[in-house]
UniProtKB/TrEMBL annotation:
One of its GO terms (molecular function) is 4-phosphoerythronate dehydrogenase activity. Homodimer. Its EC number is 1.1.1.290. NAD(+) binds at residues 146, 175, 232, 257. NCBIfam families: PRK00257.1. Pfam families: 2-Hacid_dh (PF00389), 2-Hacid_dh_C (PF02826). Residues 29-303 form the D-isomer specific 2-hydroxyacid dehydrogenase catalytic domain. One of its GO terms (biological process) is pyridoxine biosynthetic process. Residues 110-256 form the D-isomer specific 2-hydroxyacid dehydrogenase NAD-binding domain. Gene3D superfamilies: 3.30.1370.170, NAD(P)-binding Rossmann-like Domain. This is Erythronate-4-phosphate dehydrogenase. Catalyzes the oxidation of erythronate-4-phosphate to 3-hydroxy-2-oxo-4-phosphonooxybutanoate.
Amino acid sequence: MKLVVDANIPAAELCFGHYGTLIRVPGREITSAHLQDADALIVRSITQVNDALLANSPVGFVGTCTIGTDHIDQAVLAKRDIAFASAPGCNAEAVVDYVLSSLLTLAERDGWLLSERTVGIVGAGNVGSRLQARLTAMGVATLLCDPPRAEEEGVRGFHSLDALIERCDVLCLHTPLTREGPHASYQLLNAQRIEELVPGCVVLNAGRGDCVDGLALRSRLAGKGDISAILDVWEEEPNIDAGLRDLVSLATPHIAGHSLDGKLRGTWMIQQALARHCGQPIELTFADICPPPALASLHLQHALPPEDALRLCMRAVYDVRRDHDALERQTLQHGMRKGFDDCRANYPLRREFATLNVQLSGEAIGLEGVLRGAGFSLRS
């Protein structure tokens, strides 16, 4: 059996090596020539899997080690009778870590408290629902917008996007990209809605770049300059708009979900799917491929303002400013396309908040609720 695997998928040899020959190729460089004698294709989010890529190939299984599937033409797979699997939820916790790190970083920089803001969450799937749960546990007010879920489950608990724009100080987008249908998300945050954002609003997009009208956002930031933006996803990746990149408060190269834990979880989930496809037993556990963290514990003994304590613990695990600085540095040195891709291909080791055990004693015991709510493991 021959498997073509994105070169940036971790633990691929451990998870897929026993199936046969692995050919590792950078995701953006995978072509139909690589698949002419391949039985399986394992990718991440940057490989466009379509009719042209699969032309005349014997591929019988396609797996993407990611939550998103808009880079996969599933109609083509169905027509060719190719089995398909994705990894829903694999890196959702990492994306929530990214959102909390970003918001608390911006709050510190601009002098406001997250606990005093209302956060609107657009898209209540794997990421959005986890984000709401953590923010609620931290004492932060939230409003949810998810029209497909509202239609299916009833409107109670959900609000329209326009209501969120009117009532929220922070707007977080976590929607898949759909271009057609009654709930299309393409340019969901369009020019009109961007113009209607209240002064002081923070827009964070860690869903899909095409869900926001980048030109309109750039115009609002460059013109009135009365809102802020945090962007991890962009239109036209990797050739992103340098003008917009320079105007947003935090600009990162589509890495919100790039924790080691999330990547390994995605690899492991596709390994399980391939085993089922091949009729083989599932013996490998997630613990088998996930190493211990470099920093396993942290001890807080004195009282701190809650958001200072959160930033201290978060930055012990992950500091979003590193990714913002890396994107600026790499794109200045190598150009936008190569710099953007280099940041992703050479992304440094990053673990999730839950891998850090925080020990509290003395006056710091009062921080238990907010730290546990943010996703850290607590021990006394």
